[in-house]
């Protein structure tokens, strides 16, 4: 069972399959309190197992297909363990995602989900203005290939509500084709106003986003406190010594659901470089982030 929880095999399981991973699936379902499949052979994905999987998917608010695809497997892992070795890592083109030594399967085994930058407003580097992250489509493709759940974020840097809506349109037009789990507005820059933030979140919801988060710098939280309620979850960076580990002294002073606790972390499978690491801090379980 433990091998299954860690992502054993990685294949999508469906009616008629057989093997050790089917045995592990049944053990996982049993741990989750879902009975079914006893009439099937122990290592066979029969009609009883299919019914049990559908029952689980319905309860977890997943698409009810009867197939144990990567998303179903990840949500099961969240239910059984509550976490993987690393909860979440956010990545952008600055992380050199195309490096040959990156092992995306190892990344899948070690993080529950990724948050990919899909766009950024550039004021000092080309191409100037509201634009996309050059590595987003590549990273999204790797996530789909290796069954890694992911959401997206847009780094905001505009002065007017009209421009905020344009940023939201860019975010949606770039990312929605890849069906991310959620959308996040990155609020750090001093140019951003409450009007911009409210315009961005209203527009992204108008375009069709169902789950929207706010990444808000610890230093600007009070400035934008009035906008927080417009979002479904809050993500705050606060590093402390920033040595790759979590220091509880530097837990965010404001309520949040995700805490980015270092920019000097390491992710097994990723090339030998620093990445941002994040932990759950609110009442939302990991499963909440892994479902649409």
Structural account:
Helices cover 32% and strands 20% of the residues. The protein has 292 residues and is α/β, with parallel strands linked by helices. Helix 7 runs parallel beside helix 8. Helix 7 links the parallel strand 4 (150-155) and strand 5. Strands 1-2-4-5-6-7-8-9 form an eight-stranded mixed β-barrel, surrounded by four helices. The chain starts with a helix and ends with a helix. The chain folds into two domains: 2-81, PGBD-like superfamily/PGBD (Muramoyl-pentapeptide Carboxypeptidase, domain 1); 86-289, Glycosidases (TIM Barrel).
Quick summary:
With 292 residues, the protein is an alpha/beta fold. It is 32% helix and 20% strand.
Q: Write down the domain tally.
A: 2
The CATH superfamily of the largest domain is identified as Glycosidases
Order of helices and strands: HHHHEHEEHEHEHEEEEH
Strand fraction: 15-25%
Q: What value does the average pLDDT take?
A: 90
What's the N-to-C terminus distance? 26 Å
- Structural class category: alpha/beta
Q: Architecture of the largest domain, CATH level 2? A: Alpha-Beta Barrel
Helix content: 25-40%
Regarding quaternary structure, how should these chains be classified? single chain
- The CATH topology of the largest domain is TIM Barrel
Q: From the alpha-carbon coordinates, what is the Rg to the nearest angstrom?
A: 20 Å
């Amino acid at each position: 069972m433990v091998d299954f929880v860690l992502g054993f095999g990685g294949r999508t399981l469906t009616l008629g399959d057989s093997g050790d991973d089917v045995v592990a699936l049944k053990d996982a379902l049993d741990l989750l309190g879902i009975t079914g499949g006893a009439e099937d052979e122990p290592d066979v994905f029969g009609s009883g197992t299919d019914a049990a999987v559908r029952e689980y998917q319905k309860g977890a608010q997943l698409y009810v297909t009867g197939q144990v695809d990567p998303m179903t497997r990840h949500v099961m892992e969240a239910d059984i363990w509550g976490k993987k070795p690393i909860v979440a890592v956010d990545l952008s083109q600055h992380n050199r995602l195309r490096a040959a030594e990156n092992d995306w399967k190892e990344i899948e085994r070690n993080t529950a989900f990724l948050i990919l930058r899909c766009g950024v407003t550039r004021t000092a580097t080309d191409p100037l203005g509201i634009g996309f992250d050059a590595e987003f489509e590549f990273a999204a493709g790797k996530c789909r290939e290796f069954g890694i759940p992911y959401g997206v974020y847009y780094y905001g840097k505009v002065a007017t509500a009209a421009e905020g809506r344009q940023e939201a349109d860019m975010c949606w037009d770039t990312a929605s084709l890849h069906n991310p789990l959620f959308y996040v507005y990155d609020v750090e820059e001093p140019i951003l106003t409450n009007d911009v933030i409210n315009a961005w979140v209203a527009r992204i919801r108008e375009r069709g986003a169902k789950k929207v988060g706010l990444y808000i710098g610890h230093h600007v939280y009070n400035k934008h406190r009035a906008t927080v309620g417009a979002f479904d979850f809050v993500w705050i960076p606060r590093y402390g010594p920033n040595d790759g580990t979590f220091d509880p002294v530097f837990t965010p002073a404001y309520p949040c659901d995700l805490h980015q606790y270092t920019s000097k972390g390491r992710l097994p499978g990723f090339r030998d470089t620093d990445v941002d690491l994040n932990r759950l801090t609110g009442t939302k379980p990991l499963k909440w982030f892994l479902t649409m």
